[in-house]
Specification:
alpha/beta, 16 helices, disordered N terminus, binds NADPH dihydro-nicotinamide-adenine-dinucleotide phosphate, binds 6-O-phosphono-beta-D-glucopyranose
Length: 513
Amino acid sequence: QDETPLKKLKDGILSKEQKHTFDFDSNKDKSTVSITVVGASGDLAKKKIFPALFALYYEGCLPEHFTIFGYARSKMTDDELRNMVSKTLTCRIDKRENCGEKMEQFLERCFYHSGQYDSQENFAELDKKLKEHEAGRFSNRLFYLSIPPNIFINAVRCASLSASSAHGWTRVIVEKPFGRDSESSAALTGALKQYLKEDQIFRIDHYLGKELVENLSVLRFSNLIFEPLWSRQYIRNVQFIFSEDFGTEGRGGYFDHYGIIRDIMQNHLLQILALFAMETPVSLDAEDIRNEKVKVLRSMRPLQLDDVIVGQYKSHTKGGVNYPGYTNDKTVPKDSLTPTFAAAALFIDNARWDGVPFLMKAGKALHTRSAEIRVQFRHVPGNLYNKNFGSDLDQATNELVIRVQPDEAIYLKINNKVPGLGMRLDRSNLNLLYSARYSKEIPDAYERLLLDAIEGERRLFIRSDELDAAWSLFTPVLKELEHKKIVPESYPYGSRGPIGAHYLAARYKVRWG
Ligand code: NDP
Ligand code: BG6
């Protein structure tokens, strides 16, 4: 028992890659994985899914026997799919090496089948082709639903009834949005469960696959110095900040139906918050981690209208260039009230976090692209240096910043003596900049998530009760915003967002980092 690969993996004896090789080696010639990208002609498939699959192939993380099928309504031959896919594949892993040969080998394993999403017959044709490639081996099947949400259920019904694996596992990766409120999300879950068991459903939140988000638990639970500080006793507030320096560009039609709160806060930022605030899980098993995340979400107060401000970007001319406003997008109604920016204050009513504001800020068309967690610590009680030296650092507190992207880094702002004969303090950073410390390029989130789905590792996927808890925090305020037709504060394209965000933070004596 002690010698099982899983036990060794848990004990840190086997790396994930070794485990992977072990698993597939032991089944060599016996099993195959067929990956079907449903909606293969679309933006996400081209931009993220195929490149991630190629990177996994390049790294030797895919099993010996695998086949990738693209499935969509567009008419395409296998070669046309390969041609389309090849345009977005890059040699990101080792830029010095010409990975052309690997690309050719990868593309040879990619095929295409054209079909409707609601046709069992078309999925049965796909099943036939998959079987030919599986060549009698023990077959496992992964379907990645990279399609608009209104066709999820039909696609799941047809795939599960006509193209499930006969003897291996069948798993389905579902992309967000998982509904647009508690009711529609519950309806989606209910409909999916008519055809799939919960353990076959892999709900993606790609932020959970980002390196620095995965590292959050390592930082907290494997460094003695952080965990004792991780509570209301030492932490004054925590900020989760997402900003993009471009607008909805081409996705206005989708975005207008959802808005920034549903697009970013209810999922990406809330997931990070849950990982940040959860108690120590019993183990690293998926269920233990997800149990702790659900507890945090269920301890939170539903967001109040007073604790939210919303904004929408307007056109702005800078350096002779005119940047369009949100409602200039042809796919967006001229009178749209959909927020492209929001700031919110959330609270966790439990012993660890009582009274600590958890602030979120998310916006499109801002001055920069970044995602960060900022932890602001309390003041040093009776601070000797503020009192005795009237330092210009008056009230400067420690701040821990986890920069998720770009330029991944973890840094801690400390007060430090400026070298010299006098006694002057400044604020310096203890800085772990990933590009300086680690030479290996960071994998894209989709690579990690796809590999986990193939391996059946659910830790980074959203469980249905987590989803329910997340929606119940945001649904009331989303309905109120819509019902009261709250007009978003406008902000110029490329700015720092609406001033209201500062007032909201000031109400809780917080300054945005
Ligand atoms: P697309 O709009 O590009 O749609 C994917 C494919 O679905 C299209 O190529 C089209 O294929 C088919 N399709 C599109 N609209 C319809 C329709 N109304 N009825 C039937 N089929 C349709 O989506 P994306 O690739 O951008 O996104 C896929 C999923 O991933 C969505 O759920 C999206 O919300 C989510 N997502 C996307 C992100 C992105 O960056 N693009 C980021 C995060 C999530 P065909 O006509 O050939 O059948
Ligand atoms: C998606 C949102 O989930 O995340 C997009 O739908 C957003 O609106 C994207 O642009 C941001 O992801 P990333 O990985 O580029 O930060």
